[in-house]
Specification:
Elements lengths: L15 E3 L2 E3 L6 E2 L1 H8 L19 E3 L3 E2 L6 E2 L4 E2 L3 E2 L6 E5 L3 E5 L4 E3 L1
Antiparallel strand pairs: 1-2, 2-3, 4-7, 4-11, 5-6, 8-9, 9-10
Pfam families: YjdM, Zn_Ribbon_YjdM
InterPro entries: YjdM, YjdM_C, YjdM_N
Family: Belongs to the YjdM family.
Length: 113
């Protein structure tokens, strides 16, 4: 046969080309080679304000006064946050801040300790 890739879902060897897509006749999965290479590198790298790579469990410091939505309180600059957890989304850090509780932060407003 030709040198077409196997189906990434069911690993069938009977794939065929349909324009710019590859199609599997056994499971009806459609994909392109670009999607296949992106899925292998789907781990998102989160960086702080200084460009340092953040990992789960790191400690960070707030670099700007942040207003707490739905409250009149403010998280002050220099507040230390321990044991962060990285999540997907706009606010990519999930953490607990003493005196405030559970909070989601953007990585652009923190720096790694």
């Amino acid at each position: 046969m030709s040198d077409l890739p196997n189906c990434p879902k069911c690993h069938s060897e009977y794939t065929y080309e349909d324009g710019s897509l590859f199609v599997c006749p056994e499971c009806a999965h459609e994909w392109t080679l670009e999607i296949e290479t992106e899925s292998s590198n789907d781990k998102k790298i989160v960086k702080d304000a200084n460009g340092n790579v953040l990992n789960d469990g790191d400690s960070v410091t707030i670099i700007k006064d942040l207003k707490v939505k739905g409250s009149s309180s403010v998280i002050k600059i220099g507040t230390k946050v321990k044991s962060i957890r990285l999540v997907d989304g706009d606010h990519d850090i999930d953490c607990k801040i003493d005196g405030f509780g559970a909070m989601k932060l953007k990585s652009e407003f923190v720096k790694k300790v």
